[in-house]
Amino acid sequence: MKNFIVAIDGPAGSGKSTVAKILAKKYAMTYLDTGAMYRMCALYFIENEISIDKKKNIEENLPLINIDIEKDKFFLNGKDVSLEIRTPKVTGMVSYVAKIKEIREKMVELQRKISEGKDVILDGRDIGTVVFPNADLKIFLVASPEERAKRRMKDYEEKGIHEDYEKVLASILERDFIDSTRKEGPLKKASDAVEISTDGDTIDETVAKLGVFIGVAKEKKARREEEQGE
Ligand code: CDP
């Protein structure tokens, strides 16, 4: 079968990366966390104390941002930043960085390059609409803001980060707003995406639901390729 692409989009904390990781393992596919790429860009501007408000700063610094991904480790200019990119500081800044056209163009190009010739599950905001509009399966994962904030609190606790529930909830809502209202690659359900709510579901239940759709999409692709004699 030609490379099989699954796009999982949805708002902050809807469970995309957790289920995408499990599904990728289960179906022997590559997993690409595109949010981590935007987080690395945000970290670059924070660490180097460069304002993102000036176009000139973006133009000059974009070529200096080198991103490498090895399994579940993320490298920014050769340094492992897997932990730093998950801090509330980066989370608070990332949506502003991800709004910038030039940054999105570079990340989208890189996402397509990394995916070339592979069976891939990508999670993000614009995968089914911009990065791979012809993906074999598009999922739009949603959950209530309260549930998503609770999950994010749990993530932070596991990392030893203490944050207020109200603050986490506000940050999620702010990010949803910025992500959905931006001009370039906004958070949006593709017209041909399957919407799945993860409210009240365990991880296993969501994985099982998505697994059914993956099975059907694989069969559909195999049949189509057979018909076309590929
Ligand atoms: O894991 P969480 O839901 O917190 O977010 P993420 O997937 O790590 O993405 C962090 C941020 O990156 C999002 O809030 C978006 O602003 C941006 N992003 C994007 O613009 N496009 C993507 N394909 C993925 C993430």
Protein architecture, described:
The chain is α/β, with parallel strands linked by helices and 230 residues long. The chain contains 9 helices and 8 strands. It has helices spanning 16-26, 34-47, 55-61, 88-97, 101-115, 127-131, 145-158, 165-181, 203-227, and strands spanning 5-9, 30-33, 67-70, 73-76, 79-80, 120-124, 137-142, 194-197. The radius of gyration is 18 Å and the shape is globular. The structure holds cytidine-5'-diphosphate. Cytidine-5'-diphosphate is lined by residues 12-13, 17, 34-35, 38-39, 94-95, 98, 124-127, 175, 179.
Show the helix and strand layout.
Layout: E1 5-9, H1 16-26, E2 30-33, H2 34-47, H3 55-61, E3 67-70, E4 73-76, E5 79-80, H4 88-97, H5 101-115, E6 120-124, H6 127-131, E7 137-142, H7 145-158, H8 165-181, E8 194-197, H9 203-227
Parallel strand pairs: 1-6, 1-7, 2-6, 7-8
Antiparallel strand pairs: 3-4, 4-5
Cytidine-5'-diphosphate is lined by residues 12-13, 17, 34-35, 38-39, 94-95, 98, 124-127, 175, 179.
Main attributes of the structure:
8 strands; 51% helix; single chain; 230 residues; alpha/beta; 5-stranded parallel β-sheet; 3-stranded antiparallel β-sheet; binds cytidine-5'-diphosphate
Summarize this structure briefly.
This protein is of the alpha/beta class and 230 residues long.
Helix content: 40-55%
Which structural class do you get from the secondary structure elements?
Answer: alpha/beta
Biggest sheet layout? 5 strands, parallel
The number of helices is: 9
Strand order of the largest sheet: 2-6-1-7-8
- List the helices and strands in order: EHEHHEEEHHEHEHHEH
The end-to-end distance, rounded to whole angstroms, is 9 Å
**Spatial shape:** globular
Radius of gyration: 18 Å
Mean pLDDT figure? 96
What would you call the quaternary organization? single chain
Task: List all distinct small molecules, including ions and cofactors, that are bound in this structure.
Answer: cytidine-5'-diphosphate
Percent strand equals 5-15%
Low-confidence stretches: none
Overall strand count: 8
